[in-house]
Design brief:
- With about 270 residues, this protein is of the alpha+beta class.
- It has 2 domains: about 140 residues, Fructose-1,6-Bisphosphatase, Chain A, domain 1 (2-Layer Sandwich), CATH 3.30.540.10; about 110 residues, D-Maltodextrin-Binding Protein, domain 2, CATH 3.40.190.80.
- The protein is built from 6 helices and 16 strands.
- The strands form 4 sheets. A 7-stranded mixed beta sheet has the order 3-4-5-6-7-8-9, sandwiched between helices. Strands 11-10-12-16-14 form a 5-stranded mixed beta sheet, with helices on both faces.
- The model has no long low-confidence stretch (mean pLDDT about 90).
Length: about 270
């Protein structure tokens, strides 16, 4: 089934790119979602409408979860579903930048089995099917393997480096970097361009579903903030933070974090500012 779904996701991602790139980021109509949920543009809606028509019609038995579709809970009655972020990095898109992505995945019984992250303006298509490895533009990729955290470069926002999150208040001396799209951050770690990705706040499933599989298929580890395997199609579609890296860096990050520093389900994900 993963091998059957992946070509469909690739086709859908490329079609999404064709739609989104018709809009000029800074000129695209933009408004804010209710309750501080962030911005949305007419491009997000156009891409979502296309994907919502294309994907469920190709797989009638699959459920649907998308950032830009109101969740009515019907997906909970499906063993398989699409998990979609029409444009991950909407602020980047609206600012006319290039580091935004389409993120599309299939989950089966809570586990991601096929996934695509596509950045049309950078011509980068990350893809994976369960058990078949991960690729960037059809070339196999793998996570990096640095000697330890002291030589690692980790994608994270500044709030994740507050001493309260770390054992004895000691923040490891890794280098910090930032990219606006959470999906793209996961893909960059899978590619080996960065050594890890960390977010300690709750994360929406549509932001991380595709990246979870791509990173695992690139021989990395992707877990929640407490080291548990990520599970999807939750009644509230979030997971408790994400640690993503090659095995050695993942273990080092997990051991350095304060174990009692629990995230609060339902609170907003990491803010967009670096």
């Amino acid at each position: 089934m993963p091998a059957r779904d992946l070509p469909l996701l690739i086709e859908a991602a490329r079609a999404a790119g064709e739609i989104a790139t018709r809009y000029s980021g800074k000129l695209a109509r933009r408004w804010d979602k209710p309750e501080g949920a962030g911005p949305v543009t007419e491009a997000d809606i156009a891409v979502n409408d296309m994907l919502a028509a294309m994907l469920p019609s190709a797989r009638p038995g699959y459920g649907w979860l998308s950032e830009e579709t109101e969740d009515d809970g019907a997906r909970l009655n499906h063993d398989r579903l699409f998990i979609v972020d029409p444009i991950d990095g909407t602020r980047s898109f609206a600012d006319g930048k290039r580091t935004w992505a389409h993120s599309i995945a299939v989950a089966e019984h809570g586990r991601i089995t096929a996934a695509v992250i596509y950045l049309p303006l950078l011509d980068r298509l990350f893809a994976a099917a369960e058990g078949q490895g991960a690729t960037l533009n059809a070339v196999p990729i793998a996570t990096s393997q640095p000697a330890g955290l002291s030589t690692a470069e980790i994608l994270a926002t500044r709030p994740n480096l507050e001493p309260t999150h770390w054992r004895d208040g000691h923040v490891p001396a890794f280098a910090r970097a930032y990219r606006p799209s959470l999906a793209y951050r996961l893909a960059l770690v899978a590619q080996g361009r960065f050594d890890g990705m960390l977010t300690l706040r709750p994360s929406w499933e549509w932001d991380i579903a595709a990246g979870d599989l791509i990173l695992r298929e690139a021989r990395g580890r992707c877990t929640d903030r407490h080291g548990a395997a990520l599970r999807f199609n939750n009644s509230h579609p979030t997971v408790e933070g994400v640690i993503a890296a090659g095995p050695l860096v993942h273990r080092a990050l997990s051991e350095a974090l304060e174990p009692d520093d629990a995230v609060i389900p339902g609170t907003p994900p990491d803010p967009p500012a670096p």
